[in-house]
Structure of Delta-delta-dienoyl-CoA isomerase-like protein:
Amino acid sequence: MGSFKDPSKSSKEPYSYEYFNVTFPSEYVAHVEINRPEKLNAFIEVMWLNLGAIFTRLSHDPNVRAVLLTGAGPRAFTAGLDVQAASQSGVLGDSSDGSEQDIARKSLYIKRHIEEFQACVTAIEKCEKPVVAAMHGHTYGLGLDIALCADMRVAAATTSFSIKEVDIGIAADIGVLTRLPKVTGHASFAKEIALTARMFTPAEALNAGLLSYVLPTKDEAVAKGLELCKLVASKSPVAVVGTKELVNYSRDRPTEEGLKYTSVWNMGMIQTEDVKRALMSGLQKRKPTFEKL
Amino acid sequence: MGSFKDPSKSSKEPYSYEYFNVTFPSEYVAHVEINRPEKLNAFIEVMWLNLGAIFTRLSHDPNVRAVLLTGAGPRAFTAGLDVQAASQSGVLGDSSDGSEQDIARKSLYIKRHIEEFQACVTAIEKCEKPVVAAMHGHTYGLGLDIALCADMRVAAATTSFSIKEVDIGIAADIGVLTRLPKVTGHASFAKEIALTARMFTPAEALNAGLLSYVLPTKDEAVAKGLELCKLVASKSPVAVVGTKELVNYSRDRPTEEGLKYTSVWNMGMIQTEDVKRALMSGLQKRKPTFEKL
Amino acid sequence: MGSFKDPSKSSKEPYSYEYFNVTFPSEYVAHVEINRPEKLNAFIEVMWLNLGAIFTRLSHDPNVRAVLLTGAGPRAFTAGLDVQAASQSGVLGDSSDGSEQDIARKSLYIKRHIEEFQACVTAIEKCEKPVVAAMHGHTYGLGLDIALCADMRVAAATTSFSIKEVDIGIAADIGVLTRLPKVTGHASFAKEIALTARMFTPAEALNAGLLSYVLPTKDEAVAKGLELCKLVASKSPVAVVGTKELVNYSRDRPTEEGLKYTSVWNMGMIQTEDVKRALMSGLQKRKPTFEKL
Amino acid sequence: MGSFKDPSKSSKEPYSYEYFNVTFPSEYVAHVEINRPEKLNAFIEVMWLNLGAIFTRLSHDPNVRAVLLTGAGPRAFTAGLDVQAASQSGVLGDSSDGSEQDIARKSLYIKRHIEEFQACVTAIEKCEKPVVAAMHGHTYGLGLDIALCADMRVAAATTSFSIKEVDIGIAADIGVLTRLPKVTGHASFAKEIALTARMFTPAEALNAGLLSYVLPTKDEAVAKGLELCKLVASKSPVAVVGTKELVNYSRDRPTEEGLKYTSVWNMGMIQTEDVKRALMSGLQKRKPTFEKL
Amino acid sequence: MGSFKDPSKSSKEPYSYEYFNVTFPSEYVAHVEINRPEKLNAFIEVMWLNLGAIFTRLSHDPNVRAVLLTGAGPRAFTAGLDVQAASQSGVLGDSSDGSEQDIARKSLYIKRHIEEFQACVTAIEKCEKPVVAAMHGHTYGLGLDIALCADMRVAAATTSFSIKEVDIGIAADIGVLTRLPKVTGHASFAKEIALTARMFTPAEALNAGLLSYVLPTKDEAVAKGLELCKLVASKSPVAVVGTKELVNYSRDRPTEEGLKYTSVWNMGMIQTEDVKRALMSGLQKRKPTFEKL
Amino acid sequence: MGSFKDPSKSSKEPYSYEYFNVTFPSEYVAHVEINRPEKLNAFIEVMWLNLGAIFTRLSHDPNVRAVLLTGAGPRAFTAGLDVQAASQSGVLGDSSDGSEQDIARKSLYIKRHIEEFQACVTAIEKCEKPVVAAMHGHTYGLGLDIALCADMRVAAATTSFSIKEVDIGIAADIGVLTRLPKVTGHASFAKEIALTARMFTPAEALNAGLLSYVLPTKDEAVAKGLELCKLVASKSPVAVVGTKELVNYSRDRPTEEGLKYTSVWNMGMIQTEDVKRALMSGLQKRKPTFEKL
C-alpha cells in the first residue's frame, strides 16, 4: 500500500529545545539561535545534545531549505565550552580523585564522550540543507568547531575569534583542527591560530577565506546571513541538497572519486521535475516554485 | 563532581526489546536471540531498529565482554527481510501509486531509509565487544548482512545460505556486498554467490573463510558460539576491545595507517592495570580477573 | 526530442574483431573467444586493442547480461604476450639501438603505452555486465592479467598457470600484481607465484580462491562457464549490474565508503520496475522477464 | 630493429575540429579557441566531444609544451551548456514523454552520459602539458567546469562568472563542485557561489585564488595567457610535465603518498639529458634547447 | 666525479649483530637466524634494533637477492617478546612506581617507543629483496608480527602459533593486527586467533593462506625456505624487486592507484638490460646472469 | 626497574652539527641557523643529513617546545641545493660517464637517494614541536621544500622566492610540489610558480597564505619568528604537540578520519595534569608552568 513516505514529514511538534530558539523568519528558512546569553552562550552538555538534535531534525524537515545559526544577546556567538561546568563534571578528563581509576578504562569512557560530542557538532555539517553561521562578539573554542561545520560564514566587525583550547591544556577535539585546513588555504595562519590560541579579527578571517562577508554590526551580520538563506531557499531544493553533498564529499577525496560519486548521485537526481520547472520559469521570466523536500 | 563516569554504567533496566530475547548465559556474555520463529525470524522494521538499539547498548555495557547472536526456533537464523511486509510499506522502493512522486525526492527519502537501516546492522560491527554469530537453517539476504558484521561465525551443518537480493530485483544494500570482499579472500566464489543468488553450504562457507567452525546441529553450533564467547570474556576487556578495533581499522586501510593508529591507540591503553594483573596471574598460574569496562 | 536514449542501443553492426570470435550462445549471453590458436592465443597489439573495444561495447549492449571469455583451440586460454613480436616492436622497453634516446622521453612513451595496454584489459573489469573466464591449457602472464579482471573464473583440470613476467626480466605491469591480493586471501601463495614465476595447478588456484570450479576438460569448463552466464542472465539486469559495481567498489575502499556509495547507488536503482516484476513472479512461481538494459 | 616510438609523433594531420580553432601562435604553444561566438560559445554535444579529442591529442603532441584556451568573440569565454539544445535532446534528464521509461535504466543511461561528458572535460586536466585558460565575458556553468581543469587561469576585468547549475534545478556534475575545493582555499566563498548561483567578479575570483591575474581587457588577458604559455614552453618539457603531474597527484593525496610517488617518478626522469643541457646553458648564460616530448 | 654510486655498495664489513647469525648459504641468498635459543629466541630490545638494522642493510646489499629468516635451536622460531625483561624495563607500560608520571607524557614516550619497535619489524617488509620465513616450534606474539612481514612463509609441522598479546592484557601493537587481514582472507579465523590467543596449528595456518608449505621437520622447512630463496635469487633482481614493491603497494590501495603506480614504476625499470638478457637466455635455453643490484 | 623513561631525556651532549648553529635563545625555544653564508647557505649532502638529525633530535628533546629556523648572513635563507656540488657528485642523475650503467639499477639507486633526502627534510614536519621558519634574501628551490615543512612562516620584505627546479631540468622532488597545494589554497598561483620557476615576492606569498607575516628586515622577521616561538613555548606542550599532530593528520585525510583519530589521540592526552594547571592558572590570573615533554 501507498507511496513511500519520509517519516519526518509527519512531525508537527514545535522545535522547543532548552537553550535554543528555533524560528522560521522566512519561507523555508529556519533560524537557530543559541540562547544562554547570560553566560555568553557558553555550552553545557544539554546544549550540544540539543544542537545535534535540532540539526538532525532540520536536515529532514520538508519546510526547511536553509538554516541560519546565530547567538543570542549582544556579546557572543558563543564563548565556547562552559569550562567551569565541564571541569566539575569531569568532561575535561581532569578529576581530582580520578587517580584510582584505570587509565585505559577512563580513556575509553572519554573516547565515547568525545565521539558523542563530535557527532552533535557534525550534525550541522551533515544537515542536508545549507547552514549559514552569522557570528558576533566572543566566538571562541567550541564556537569555531561549530562555525566551521556551517557552509557559509559571515561575521560582525566586532567579532573576536580564538581557538582557545591550547590555553586550557588540550588539543581541540571537537573538530576545529580537522576542519581548519579544509576551510582555509592559508596554512601558516591556520597553524598560528591553532598553536597560539591568539585572538584574531574578522578581517583576518575574511582574508583567510574563513568568512564570506564582514558586516559592521551584529544586526547587519544576521541580516546578511538571512539574505543568503533566503536566496538559497529560493532555489530547487534538489539542486541545493546535491550541491552541498557533492562539495563536501569532493573536498575530502581525490578528484576521480568526487567525479564518480557525482555521476552516481546525479543519475537519479537529474530526473527531478525541478529541472523542467526551473527551465520553464527561466523562459517565462518568473520565479519557480518547487515541491517540498 | 569527581571521577569521570561512563553514563552507560548506571543503566539497570532490563533488555526488553520486541522480537528479541537478550539473556546472560555466562559471566560477561550476552546472548541475543532473534525471536520471530513463526516467520523464520524474518525482519520487519521494528526489528532492525531494535537490533541496532540492542548492540549500541551492549557496546558500552560494563557487564558485557562478548555477545552471542542466534535465531530462535529450529528453522532459521533469519530468512532475511520480510519481503511481503516490506513491499507493502514501500520500503523496497516499489509502490503501486508512487508514480506521481518526484523521482529525486523519492530517491532522497529512500537514501535516508537505507542509511538508517545500514546503521542498525553496522551497530553490530561497531559494538566494542566481539560478537559471535551462530547460525542454522535459513540464513538469507539480511541474514548475511548481519552475520558479516559479527567478528566470528559458526554454523550448523544444516544451514543454507543465500544472498537473495538479486532474486528480488535489487543489489543488496545493507552491507553484504561491501563486507563480502573483506571477510573472504575467495573473490570468484564471492562474486558467484552475490551475482547468482544461489544457495551455498556451510562447507563452502567454511572453505571460503566465512566461518570458523561447522557443527552438526544447531545446538552444537550455539554451544560452540557460547564457548568462544566465554573464552573471549575471560580475557582482559581492554585487550579484547583494542584487538577488535585495531583489526577492523586496519582491514580497511593501508598498512602504514594501521600501524600509526595502533601506536596512538595503545599509547594510553597499554597503561592499563590489566597488564600487571595478567602478568601476575601468569606467574602465579591462576586465572586473572579484570575490572569492568 | 523525447525520452533519453542510450546511444549504444542503436548499434546493429556485427561484432567482428580480428583474432576474436564473438557469438551469442544463449539469450543475453555473449561469448568472446580469443582466436589465435596457432600461436597459443598469444597477444599482439591489435589483439589487446580489440579486447578493449569488445568489452567496452558489450558493457552497454542491451542484448548482453553476462559474458563468457574463453580461448580457441585445445592448447591454451592464452600463453600471454607474444614476446617475440613485442620485443621486435620495442614494447618491452628493450631495443638494441635505443641508447641514443633520452631516458626520460622514452620513459614517458612507455608509460603512455602501458596505460593504454592496462586500459584495454581493465575494460573487462569495467564492463557493466559480469564476465566469466573459462580457462584451459596454457594460461600465462597476460592470461592472468585478463582472467583476474573477470568476475568469476572456472578452469579445466589441464590448465597450467604461471605469472611469467619475472622470467623475462620485468615486473608484471598490466594488472596481475595489483589484482592478485584482491582476488585471493592467500598472501604467501600469491607472493610465491608472483616472485618465482613457477607453474601452478588448477587445484592450487581453487584452494587459493582464484577459481570457483575446476572441471575435467576444456569442454566441461566452458559449459560450466556458460551455465554461470545463463544463470546470471536470467536475473534482473538492474540488480546484477548494481551487484558487480558495488562489490568492486567496496573491495577497494573502507567499509564506510562502500556503505555510503551503496545507498546513493540504490536510492535511484531500487525504484526499478524489476522489483515489482521479480516479486510478482516469485508469488506466481514463474520466471520473471526484465526489460533490456 | 628500432627504438621505441611514440605513435603520436607520426601524426601530421591538421587540428580541425568543428567549433574550435586550434593554432600555434608560438613555438611549442598551442592555442585552442572555443568558436561558436554567435551562441556565446555555448556547448552542444559535438563540442565537448571535440574538446576531449583535442586535449587528448595535444597531450602527446611533441610540438606542444603549453596550451592556451580562450573563447572566440567579444562576449563570452563560454556561457556554458547550451541549455535549450540540451533540454531537447534529453541530456538534462528531463523529458516530456519519459515517464514510461524505467527509472533505473534511465539512471544508468544518464550515468554513462555524465561520465562521458566528465571525461571530455577531464582531458584538459589529464593533458600532460600545462593549460592556461584566459577568460572574458560570460563564463558560466560548464565554463567553470572547464576553467577549473586548467593549470593557470587569467581573466579580463569584464568577465562575469557564475556556477549556474542550481538555477536550472541540478547540482553541477561535470566537475566544478569536485574541483572547487581543490582550487580555492576560501571555503565559505566556494560554497556561496556554488549554492546561490550568484554572479561573481574577477576581483573576487582573484582574491579566492581562482585566478593568477586580472587584466583590463580580453586582449590583454589573452596576451597574458600567451606570455605564460611561452614561458612554460621555454623550459625543459620533462621538468614541466613532471611538475604538473606531481602537483596534481599530491593535491589529491596524503603527503606521504605524494612523496613516494615523486621519488618513483623522478628515479627515471632525472636521468634526462635536459638536466645537463639546462645546467650547461645556465653556466654559459644562454637559452637552453630541449628535445621534443 | 662520475657515475652515481649507491653508498651501500662499498660496505665490506661483516654482518655481525648480537643474537643473530647472518650467513650466505648460496649465491645472492642471505640467511638470518634469530639466535637466543636458550630463551626460545625471545626478543629483548637490542634484538629488535638489530633485526631492523640487518634488514635495512640487506635491502640495499648488492650481494643479496633473497633472504631466509629462521630461529636457532630445536624449540622455537621465537617465543615472542621476552615478557619478563620487558616488564622490568617498563616497555609494557606497566610500572609499579609510575603513578607519579603524567599520563599524557608517559603516553607520548610509549608512542615513540612503539613506533621505533614497529619500524624495526617493518624493515622486513620494506626490505627491497623478498624474505622467506621458515618457522618451527614456538612462534608466538612478536613471532607472528615478524612472520607476517615476510613475503613467503613455510613452517614445520611441529610449529605452534599463537597471537599471545591478549593474554598479557594488551592489543598486539607491533603489526600483527594490521597485517593479519591482509595476509589471510579467512576473516572469522583471523578474528578468532587474535581475540582468543588460542594456539593454532600449521594445518590451520596453511588452510587460511598464512603459509605456502608445511614440512614435517624444522630441517625440511628450512630447506624448503632456502629452495624458495634460491629460486627467487636466480631471477632478474630488477623484476623481483619490482614485483615485491608492486604487490605490497597494490594490496593496500584501490585498483586504479595500483595500476597508476605500476606504470610509473615500470616506465623506467622496463628499460633494464635484464629484459634482453632474459629473452636471449630463453632463446638459448641457458640460465641468464644479471648484474648486481 | 621502574617508571618508563624516554631515552632522549638523558642526552646532554651539545647540538654541534657542521654548517648549523643550534642555540637556545629563550626557555624551551631552540634556534636552528643554516650556516654556510659564504655560499648563500646552499646545501651540500652533509647539510641535509645534519638538518634531519637536528630536527629528529629536537623532536624528543624535553627542553624544546618550539623551534625557530633561519639562515645565517645577510643574503639568503638558503639558495637551495648547491647545484655545482650536486652535479659533480652525480646526485642530479646526470653523469658524464654514466651511460654504461643499467638504467633500472641507476633508477633504484636514485630512488633510495631521493627518499633519504626527502626524509631529512620531512624531519621538520615530523618534529613533534612546532617549527617557525623566518626567511630573508634568496629562498630558492630546496629553501621552499624546507620552509613548507615548517608550521608557520614569516619573511623579510627583502626575501625573493623561487621554485627553481624546472630551470635545471627537473621536477622538484624533495617535497615542495607535494606540500604546495596543502599550504596554499591559491591553486592557479601555485601552479604558476611551480611551472614557471619565476621569482615571487613576500607580498604574493602572504596573499597566497604561504606566510603569516612580512616584516621589513631580516632582523625583524627573525624577531617575529622568535616571538611566535616564545608564545607557543609558553603553552602546555601536551596541547601544542597534539595540535600540530592533529592539524597535520587531518589536512591529509577525510573529515571523518580526522575526527576519529582525534578522539583516540585525546582519550589519553586529555588526562594530562596540564589541564588542571592551565585551569588553575587561569582562575588565579597567573602564568602556568608545565612539566617537560
Q: What stands out?
A: Chain E touches chain D at residues 261, 264-265, 267-269, 271 (CB under 8 Å). The longest strand of chain E covers residues 20-26.
